[in-house]
Amino acid sequence: MGQQQGLGRVTQALTERLGAGRLITDPLARSTYECDGLANHKAVPGLVVLAESPDDIAVTVRECAREGVPFVARGSGTGLSGGALPHTDGVLIVTSRLREIVDIDVAAQRAVVQPGVINLQLTKAATPHGYYFAPDPSSQQVCSIGGNLAENSGGAHCLKYGFTVHHITGAQVVTPVGDVVDIGGKAPDPPGYDLLSMLVGSEGTLGVVTSITVKLTRLPQTVRCLLAGFPDTDSAGAATSAIIGSGCIPAAIEMMDTLAIEAAEAAVACNYPAGAGAVLVVELDGPAAQVEAQFAQVEAFCREHGAFELRVAADETERALIWRGRKSAFAAVGRISPDYLVQDGVIPRTALPEVLHAIAELGRERGVRVANVFHAGDGNLHPLVLFDGDVPGEEERAEEVSGAILDLCISHGGSITGEHGVGSDKAKYMPRMFSDADLDTMQMVRCAFDPDSISNPGKIFPTPRLCGERPGRHRGAHPLAQAGIAEVF
Amino acid sequence: MGQQQGLGRVTQALTERLGAGRLITDPLARSTYECDGLANHKAVPGLVVLAESPDDIAVTVRECAREGVPFVARGSGTGLSGGALPHTDGVLIVTSRLREIVDIDVAAQRAVVQPGVINLQLTKAATPHGYYFAPDPSSQQVCSIGGNLAENSGGAHCLKYGFTVHHITGAQVVTPVGDVVDIGGKAPDPPGYDLLSMLVGSEGTLGVVTSITVKLTRLPQTVRCLLAGFPDTDSAGAATSAIIGSGCIPAAIEMMDTLAIEAAEAAVACNYPAGAGAVLVVELDGPAAQVEAQFAQVEAFCREHGAFELRVAADETERALIWRGRKSAFAAVGRISPDYLVQDGVIPRTALPEVLHAIAELGRERGVRVANVFHAGDGNLHPLVLFDGDVPGEEERAEEVSGAILDLCISHGGSITGEHGVGSDKAKYMPRMFSDADLDTMQMVRCAFDPDSISNPGKIFPTPRLCGERPGRHRGAHPLAQAGIAEVF
Question: Coiled-coil regions in this chain (chains A, B) (predicted)?
C-alpha cells in the first residue's frame, strides 16, 4: 500500500518534470510491457517512462529513490531470463528512445553509445570505418546494447571474441540513490577495484546505465564457413574437441542435433545434410593466409571424426544459408511443438558427450522431447524442452527436465547460465550453484550501491538480504563462513 | 601499543600451532623482508610466517583477525609499487614455499597452482603439453603467480594476450576474517556478480589467495621478431600506429629511446642500430601462414615511417639477442646513472608523440634526464627518471618530474599505472585520477570483506574509510554523490 501511494507521488512528480508525453499510465498500454522475451513471467508495470535523455533516467530514479518505489530498466525487451520483468507497484524505465551513437573514435577503437542503441545498428555505423561491435546475440537485429551490458550477453561468436564484458571499457550509471557516476572510460584497466566488470552482468541491480563506451573490433579480412553432417552428437563433439585442441580458435562452432535440424527444416527449408544425427557449423575469420591454412585443418578434423558430408560456403549467400538454419532454430521449434522452454547452461567442453547422453536419458525417462542447439566450442548448451501446454502435466514435466538439465551442468562443473542471465527465471536455481554465504557476499556489495533494494529487486538473488548488517570479525559470524562453499581445511 | 601486544599474542599462538620453523622472529632475519622491488619504501615486519600450506595461511589470518593485527602477503617480492611493504606491528605472510603446481588439465586448458609458483615455472611445466602461461612480466623468472594476481601484472606480450585478469578463472582466498572461499573455477563467466575480476588487482586488500586456477594458452606455431631503428620516437610512434591501425595485433611492440638504448649498450652490448633516436622491437606469433603475411606488412610499415635499419631474427638466438637489450633496459640504467625512479603510466596510443615531447620538455626544464622504455602497442610508458642521490635536491626534482609525468598521463585520458599497481607508492596519486566519492565506493566494497582493515592496510587508498557507515538514501548523502566525478546533468 505504501509503495502504491509512493508510486502515485512519483507519477505526479514525473508528469510535472518530464511531461505526460514521456509517460504511459493507461493500463492497456502498460500491459504491452508485462514481460520480456521470457513470456511465462508477467507483471504489468505501475508506470512506464519512455526516457528521451540520460537526464530523464536520472530524474526518474531520483523520484523513485525519494519514495522508495522500485524501478526496472528495459531496453528492447528481448532478454530470455525475465531480467526486465516489471513491478506492479514500480516504474519501468524504457530506454528505446535513447538511440544515439554519440561518438565513433576510430583511432582509439572505441564507440560511445546511449543504452537504447541496437546492437546491429552500432556494427552498421562502424562498418564504413572497417570496424564492428563483436558481441552478437542471435537477437542482434533488435536487442539493445544497454540490455547486452545488463545481461553480459554472448552470441555465436563469443568463443573467439568473448562476452559483452570483454567489449565494454566504460559506463555512466545512475546509481539506485540517483547519483550519476562514470566508471572506466576509453582506456583499459584502470587502477583500484574493477567495478566495471561487476556492473556488466549485474542485471540492473546496481543502477541504470545512461552511456556505454565499447571497444570496436577490426573487421576480419576473410570469413570462411562450413557445414558438416555427422552420424551423431558424439562424433560431432569429438570433432569439436579436436579442432579446439589443435590450438585453432574458430569464430564459431555451433552444433544442432536431429530434432533441432528437423525443426529448422520445417521452418526454413535449410536443406541440411539428410540423415544427420548432428551438424556442426564452423566459421573461421581473420587474415586470409591464416584462415585458409586452418580451414583445411578443420575440414580434415571433421572427416577424421566421421563427418559424412561437408559443405563449404562459396560466397556470402551460401554462408547466410548455412546460418539461416542455425539462427532460426529457436523459433523453428514452434513448428514441431506447441510449446517449449529454452534452457541455457554451460558445461566444460570435454563433458559434452556425457551430458548430451544424460539429457537424452532424462527426456526418455520423463517422456519429454529435447532438441539441442548450442555453442559447442564453449560448451554453452541451449536445450529446447518441448511440451504441449494443453496436455495436463506436460508443462510441469518439461520444467522438471529443464531444471534437471541445470543440475547436470552444475554437477559437471558448469553453470546455470551461459549468456541469458539469471533474471527472475533462475534466481531460484542460484542456491544450487552458490552457498547462502556466496550469495550474501554478492548482496553485501549490492547494499553498497542500493541500500533500499529498489533497483530491479527480485532478480538474481532468491532471498533479499537486509542491508546495513556489518560482517562480524570472527569466524562464523561472517557471511562467507559456511562449510558449504569451500571449507576445505 | 595495542597492536604490538596483539602481535605478541599472535606470535605465541602461531609458534604453538605452526611450529617455530615456519616463523622468523629474529630482527636481522626479518629485516630481509623490509621492502619489495620498490626499494625506497621500507618497514621491517613484526613477524614473518613462511607458509608451507594453504592451511598455514588460514591459521595465520585467523589469529591476526582475532587480535586485530594487520597482515601483508608477499610472493617473491618483485613488485614495483610497494604492494608487499610490511607493517612494523604486523605479520608478513610469505608464500614462497607454496610452489606446487596442483593440476595441469590440458583438456580444459587450465592449471591449478599454489600462490608461490613462479610464473616461468608454470610455463615450463605446460610446455611439454604444447601450452604456456601467457602473462609474462619482465620478472617472470622470479615473480610468483600469487603476486601476479594481486597486482594484475602485465608484460611485454599483454598487447595481444591481455593482463593477468584475463588468464585467471578461479581462486581460493582466505578472507580477512579468516574464512576460506572459492570464487570462480575452471569454467568461464559464472552468473552473479563478478567478484573474481575485483579480486585480481586488489593488491591483497581483500584477503590472501591460497590457490589459483589459470588459463593455459596454446604455444604459437611460429614466432617472428624484428628490430627496427628509427631517427626519432615520433617516427617509431607513427609506425606503431600504422601497424595497429591495420588490424594486425602483434604479440609485442616495444619502444626504447636514445638514452635507454645507450644504457642497454653499456650493459649488455646489444648492438642496436647505431645513431637510432628510437628502436622498435616487434614480435608476431601465431599460425605460420598468418605470421608470414603480416610480418611482411609490418616491415613495410616500418620502412614507410622512416626506419633506416631493419633486422629480422633468423633464429631463437638472434631473437634472444634482440630481446636482451630490451629486457636489460631497467637494470642497465644503473650503468649511466647512480640512481633512478621507474615510472609506470598509461596513455592512449594516439597521444604517444605529444606525451613523449612533453616528457622531454619536463626533463629539460628541471634538468633531469629521462630514459623511455615502453610497451608502445598499448601506450604503457615506463619512463626512467635518472638522478644522483648524492647531489642535494636531485632526488626531489626527479620525484617532481616523475609525478608530473603521471599528471600528463591523466590529462591525456590515461592512467597512473599500467601494470605495476598502486601499492604504497601511488596511493597518494589516486585522488588525481579518482574523486573522493569514487575511492569511497571502492572502500565500501572493501569493508564488505575486511571490516577491520587489517588486510594490507595503507595500500591503494590514500585515506582509509571507516567501515560500518550505511550509504544514505538521498542525493548528496551517498558516497557517490560528488560533483567531481561525472555530475553532468
Answer: none
